[in-house]
Amino acid sequence: MNQISPFKSSAFRITLVYVVLFGISVSIILGFIYWSTIVYKTQQTDDDINAEILELTEVYEQKGYPGLVILLSERIERLRPGDPTLYLLTDHRYQPLVGNIYPWPKVARDVKEGWLEFRLEDGERQGVDGEFTARAKTFVVENRFNLLVGQGMKDLTTLKALVGRALIWGLILTLALGVIGGFMMRQTLRSRLGAINQTSRKIMQGDLRKRIATRGTGDEFDELANNLNSMLDQIEHGMEGVRRVSDNIAHDLKTPLARLKNRVEELRLRVDPGSEEEAAVDQIIQEADGLLATFNALLRIARIEYSEQRKGFSLVDVNSILSDLQELYEPLIEEKGQSLSVQIGGPMEIYADRDMLFQALANLLDNAIKYTPDRGQVSIRSAKSEGQWLVEIADNGPGIPESEYEKVVQRFYRLDQSRTTPGSGLGLALVFAVLKVHRLELQFADNMPGLKVQIIADPAVVTKPLIHESDGDTQGRAVYLPGTQPA
């Protein structure tokens, strides 16, 4: 299975967008909560200060400076420890007259309309230690006195810190939940799309009976799977129709062609030996044999593809087949002056039909000998590598262009340089059908010069038997045991 880069994965991008939008929206909400809380508390403080100033102003207007001093003194005496209220009355030189903070704030910045924000150092407020921020409003009384009324912002500072920490942790928790939710969404997408892709790959490998599983939820993925399954049903129906037409044609023409060949052979007995008529009749018989071989190959491929022969599968020693092939083809190789190299690896037993597998390997070896020039080299090799079994047949003939690898296993497909040689273009199609039934993989490679044909097997798959059962169709289907997968 091909692994897609996370940055190229649509599921990853959707998850990333989801997490970013989720984080932004939550940040906006939490930021608004923080801002509204602090603004509300600050506004409440300002309202309390303005109310104090309004009351002190009324007292000053009614009772003058003495009344103002008396009121400030009384209020300062009534303050409890920890009360945030601040008072300070000074002369025009900012010398303290009455108040609970000393001296007039040295480090201060004007905000607006006489508002100040400053820090109180240790001991600057009567009865209270520690540093904290204060907010106050000042104004001048009769150009002789400066009055400051404010409140300590220690509670507000603490509230800011608490709310800030709560918002930060809330944002972290929200992003974590967003990431988890996004990851779960990505896994769901990957799971559903992965099932579709896995089934699609098996269909592309030629198993048109595969269908995409649905979960019965009625969601968009089920709708997509149903549509794809309907499309596959139509494609399979069309392909089966084409196959059956070609197979029926082959089957229907085989009998009259065989009768025609028999009559031509009877005619041959009546012509004079060595005459031109005999040569013509021999050529007709040869062409008839070629047509019969083509029809037989078509019917053979059809039977293999329809899985009619899976019932006879048993454990077969692949190396023994290779040894038999060596013994069978050595006379032909010697006749052409070619050399044959055989390297047999360790034991290699698979569940197979021995006759079918022998025919497929024989076709590959026959092609290698056929296209290898005189005094050329042909090799057969079996080996175990990286957890896989390999059977390789190689030659140093003209080879096959890489662009043609996928085409040469199609029925009747022949390379341009092969059209002048006898054959129907069904040999590799038959090999491909046999290997597919046996859950084996066919690969081509450049032998520089020549061609390497490799048959690759997964021991975990090919060493387990198939259970064949009817599915109501006349063709039947193959069911794989747990832990196995078709090639």
TrEMBL record:
Chain segments annotated as transmembrane: 12-35, 166-185
Keywords: Kinase, Membrane, Phosphoprotein, Transferase, Transmembrane, Transmembrane helix, Two-component regulatory system
Keyword Nucleus (UniProt): no
Annotated EC: 2.7.13.3
Positions of the HAMP domain: 187-240
One of the Pfam families matching this protein, by short name: HATPase_c
Protein name according to UniProt: histidine kinase
Organism: Arenicella chitinivorans
